[in-house]
Amino acid sequence: MAFKLLKYEAYNTLRSRFIVGYFLFFLLLTSALSYFSGDVSKVIVSLLNIVILFVPLISLVFSSLFFYGTREFTELILVQPVGRKVVYFSKVLGISLPLAVSSGAGMGIPLVVFGASPVHTLLLTLSSVYLTFIFSAMAIMFAVISDDRVKGLAMGLAVWIYASVIYDALILFVGMAFYDYPIEGLIILLSILNPVDLARILIVMNLDIAALMGYTGALFVKFVTTVKGYVIIFLTLTLWFVVPLFVGSWFFNRKDF
Amino acid sequence: MDSIIVEDLYKRFGKNEVLKGINLRVRSGEITAILGPNASGKTTLMKCILGLVIPTSGKITVMGHDTRKGVEYRRYIGYMPQIARFPENLTVRELIDMVKDIRGEEASEEYYVNLFGLEKFLDKHLSVLSGGTRQKVNATLALMFDNAVYMLDEPTVGFDPVASTHFKDEVIKLKKAGKSIVFTSHIMSEVEELADRVVFLLGGVIHFDGTPSRFKEQTGESTLERAIARLMKEVGVENGV
Predict the structure, then answer these.
(1) Predicted interface score ipTM higher than 0.90
(2) In B, which residues are within 8 Å of A16 by CB distance?
């Protein structure tokens, strides 16, 4: 039953022309950048900026609007002999999976064709996939909590502004205020509080440009590129997805339609 | 046999208590009309039985299954919501096939597609259908499975007289086949024509439960419409409204 529902949900999402446009956007952009730049690792850096700003925002807005827009569909399914958990999880996956595949494949295919480093390609697409899942789950969680679509979307956008804008200012402030102290550990810890930053660290630290970041950069590279570092980063990113997913499920089970 | 048993049902939306201790037994082979003014709790009661709205307290049993334990009881129910809203980007055929697939049951959709003249709309998207046609699709989805209980929320709104007649004939056929039919309506001629039993709901409380003729007798009025108006006035006075 879960697979059947997921199929219909994903089919529903895929019928929206936006998803095709989203895939083509990444495909054309990555191809164009790779073709004209010649240095594929520079392309990775350019794409990184798009991934950490654009992917969370699009995932958030699309998932939120799609969840509100398919309320009739949800109600139609809920009066059938299907459990709410199955309805909810297939809904989240049905929305986020096509989004994740569009951005991941849209960047991944041209990068492979133009001969980018497999590790960098993998990390970039994985980051994009993770950020899609995280922000989709978060948008849907807020949409379940609030029946008012303006409020639901606003809550999601507030998280996005925190993760993409306010957080950087916060880190800068911590860095300035505690300039004289050994705060590398603290900064690493703070990164855990922001999935967007985790994705950024993951990619930047694997590129040569990490060397430009001095001592702290070196420390980060040392942390991130160990097995322990990878495990912590991926585990944290997974938590960032799983927590809103289950909180949303809890509210969905108790929601009145 | 009682197909639906509602015991001490309460539902509160925030501060607003919509259902205040509903007790109701719906019998097989009977058509029950739930009447009441707007916002009296009719749709909420139906949605509680369907599991769309989670009751604050109370117990609902459908064909012997407690609705709080599992979802299989929904297999016994055909539901026609008040407003026929569907996923807009599907065609009528896709929608029918999807519901059949999810339910995993055989359905007699062809019969209802013919009855309501939906053949020419099968490959059209739901977004381009008129309100009345959507309502016909809505009716097809509710009636096409062989259910024990049919819950119809203002079913004939939007129907043309032909569709409305066909629909009412079908409801009577289902009753004769021993099914339970629960419906809400503001059209009193329809209630007089169909209902074996009238349940009058006002402010989340059942104020009358019996045959339409007893309802009229009790209020001393000649028509159901007047009987309802009288009862609303009396209850309103009692509650100091």
Answers:
(1) no
(2) 89
